[in-house]
């Protein structure tokens, strides 16, 4: 840790030391890295209300190599606000994208089941939108090109746009042409000039990462052909509440989308939210279909159905989040009570899941000091250290070599799959601890 900083003993948050000669410059540097917006990124209203306060965390996917262990990894807020005008749930503390994505190592293929999901996704879009072979399909936030590779296999021309330049270069080298820039209206104009209008534009689990939503929506309007369709997937605010997936709130996820604000946002630029499909990824997501009012898709009543459900569930009411916060707090206390007792008994605890959601969970549940190390099958994470707490990341085979007394399943949405795969650990006397959506201890 650098001079002039102190670390909170319970949550590892870094703060400038009182009286430090570097305090002024440290705070100035912090302001340059992060800024707080005071208006809604969808409708520009300043009537924002805090609905869920989370513990600050370092950048969630910044798992560091050994030579970076002395680097400062300050924590930043991830509080969830709701716009009382349009209903968009959002975090308002924005980290500079060059900082947020500068050490980005996530690739789509590392996520369990996404290859299969994207193949089915491409087939669904081609069939439902009646896309002819040779049509241009673009993916915004295309990462390693996994989705576009599926479209290409169906006979489409493809083009990706990816924020992380090093990942864009890798995708292009693998045969998926990818532009390594941030998407906005000016880039859309350049793309149309060089490639023409796009029949299909997709943005999957990335639209929620955008601060300037208006510029993106304007850019999409530029890209789309007259019969073009914009399709995006994102985790769903109502499912975040129903399924307890609060750990999907982190610095990259600037917005937690729902139907009401999305309908209004696209209508503001003359586009129409025509249909919605529910999908199981990310703890519960929606696939939105957006087109021009004269576009090729027919309305199927799905938008109106979900709007009615949102109102009946009260996802735009503060009271709903008060109840949600209380449930999360109860699970936190159950988990902490167990971990504290385990440490009193000198038990070892491994955490399964070196993921960005794991960072949110570790910090909000304040349990970093009780975990000895993490295990994960993602080779890109192995040999690295977790954000802030610097817990070493080992391959899953470590649970047989080191024989921890407990494996805390941080990637709890995949708990059943993980536990089935590692039945041998249970047979050898091990024990799984699952903190969400309800606290469970699983022994043989």
Secondary-structure content class:
alpha/beta
- Enumerate the spans where pLDDT stays under 50 for 5 or more consecutive residues: 1-29
Helix content: 25-40%
Determine the CATH topology of the largest domain: Rossmann fold
Number of helices: 15
Secondary structure: number of strands:
21
Total count of domains: 2
Q: Which overall shape is indicated by the principal axes computed on the Cα atoms?
A: globular
User: Which radius of gyration do the C-alpha atoms yield?
Assistant: 22 Å
Distance between the termini: 42 Å
- In terms of DSSP E residues, the strand content is 15-25%
CATH homology superfamily of the largest domain: Vaccinia Virus protein VP39
CATH architecture of the largest domain: 3-Layer(aba) Sandwich
CATH class of the largest domain equals Alpha Beta
How would you write the strand order of the largest sheet? Answer: 10-9-8-11-12-15-14
Query: What's the rounded overall pLDDT mean?
Result: 90
Largest sheet: 7 strands, mixed
Determine the oligomeric state from the structure.
Answer: single chain
